[in-house]
């Protein structure tokens, strides 16, 4: 017990409160930093010194910096992120499909009714070239709208495919960063404000990665994060990472997701991804969009085949018969649907009568007009009903996706709130701490003066 | 629960966005006047909307069909009335000339009147509407009647006529063939040969021939009257179908409006409520923002 030990206590206290002030400042500075967890300098009583009168306190020490962090909560957020991002992508892209199929923009059912109505007009005066030209124009317009919708759906499919590539690329970037942070955290030791900040960054990256695909993650005893795919393939282990890559599927021309193992061999893991943004993109590209394209194809097929079957049987103004109205496409109906060139060249080639003797007959026009309301066997319903069902199909799918997204977003909101209440920075709280530490610092500084005066009076006494 | 600054601002932001999104949607509904902006707003009603819209288009189309049928009927009506007048005139001539007191010369000159009537009937038989010969059946591009040198007439059209759709499933006749206007094979009537017979009887000063032609003329007149009443009935039917279509038109528009149109009054009320909520939110934020320890630290 000496005056110098008082100086020592003062020195340690000043150091401790300075640290506390710095950590408080760090907290305030990061009040808006995404993924930041509030830090605190933990102060502890210094080991007491044994003296003749017993153990005597030796001031304060900084034990370390802790993060306000709930691991369970962070894991839940990472997991939730997977389903939230999946729902978000589905909602966004199904909305895009809806806006394409929506009658207001596609005008498909209007074009369809117009087309069949033009046969009604032609039935009034089967030999009128004006009425025939209308049939041609409405036919071309309908075919054009089907092709346009097909192209748009295909474009969207290609865009989604590019997104798969971008997401996979981004996932690999994250894996690389996590591996690098693992090294920094390992080297920096587990305590200290710096390691805590690295951990915050890594948690944020893990959440981002979880948004893309479902992963399993756990920390080892040294604080390094190991990340596995849901099927147990290693993505990050300590300082090394195994990248995800895209592989072109030669059959479809679209990207598949590959995983490069230690030997550099790429394994196709596309089917192993069951959740997340990448899964949503894969599902839209390989299931939802092809489904709508197939529906459109069937519609095109029903149209081409039913109109052609009747048209072929009739005679036209040039006396010809066995003429097709729509081109019989070699490949997809929706892709290639168009009015026959000979009809485009001469509207007299549109058939109107089943009896070549009755040059002014209109029975073929009537049969064609009637197609507009009759049940088409290939579709199982009328054309209009088929389009109405298509519209309600995308509407229903999107609505379900929107509901899922709202639900996921709300759950995420609750989790984020909880996280914020654990790890978030409150300026008021920090300010209170600031004042507390400031006073403590001033008091400790005062101790220097006291010790100084004590020493001075001792020296003067000599 | 600790409320961090982030949480406070995020909550404010989230609430603001939520209200803004609702306001945006409401505004869009008011501007477009539609309750359903996309199928996902109400998949079932959207699908029904498409079906009813298609039915409305078809209904409008069928109305045009019926109007054209009505127009054509009035052409037939005019033509048939003229035929009736001409036949009555021929009958008058026949009655006069059948009298025992008539001389050969008057009968011969009357034959000229009948020739004129035959010529006019051929002209009526070749009436056109636009490019179409209305009595030609299914051969509308060529004149259905040719007048021969001996004042007989040859029919070149077809007996059958076209039909058109008057509803989704029902067809109505669209046109009359000359064959049913000037001949009736069941009763063995042929207007042109009756007139030709009359003309020849007059020329030959054959009183019996004139008398028997008179019988034929009576039958021809009753055939024409039957046809006039047929056209009248047809026209009435077309008109009643037309008014059905008009009613359906109104109905469909009502149904569509119920399905997809927005209730502007309630939407405007909703918009007002939203804007009040928005103002309240801004007000509370203003208040909450001031509640910071920083305002008390100097």
Describe the protein's architecture and organization.
The complex is a heterodimer of chains A (462) and B (298). Chain A is 63% helix and 12% strand. With 462 residues, chain A is of the alpha+beta class. In chain A, the strands form five sheets. Chain A has a four-stranded antiparallel β-sheet, with helices on one face. A three-stranded antiparallel β-sheet of chain A has the order 9-10-11, covered by helices on one side. A two-stranded antiparallel sheet of chain A has the order 1-4. The longest helix of chain A is centred in the middle third of the chain and has 60 residues, at 129-188. The model of chain A has no long low-confidence stretch (mean pLDDT 92). In chain B, strands 1-2 form a two-stranded antiparallel sheet. Chain B has a two-stranded antiparallel sheet with strand order 3-4. In chain B, strands 5-6 form a two-stranded antiparallel ribbon. The radius of gyration of chain B is 38 Å and the shape is rod-shaped. Chain B is mainly alpha-helical and 298 residues long. Chain B has helices at residues 5-32, 43-98, 104-125, 178-182, 191-203, 207-260, 264-290, and strands at residues 128-129, 132-133, 145-147, 153-155, 162-165, 171-174, 183-184, 189-190. The longest helix of chain B has 56 residues, at 43-98. Chain B has two domains: 2-33 and 262-297; 86-232, Up-down Bundle (f41 fragment of flagellin, N-terminal domain). In chain B, helix 2 (43-98) runs antiparallel to helix 3, helix 2 (43-98) packs antiparallel against helix 6 and helix 3 (104-125) runs antiparallel to helix 5. The two termini of chain B are 28 Å apart. In chain B, strand 3 and strand 4 form a beta hairpin. The mean pLDDT of chain B is 91. Chains A and B meet through helix 2, helix 4, helix 10, helix 11 and helix 12 of A and helix 1, helix 2 and strand 5 of B.
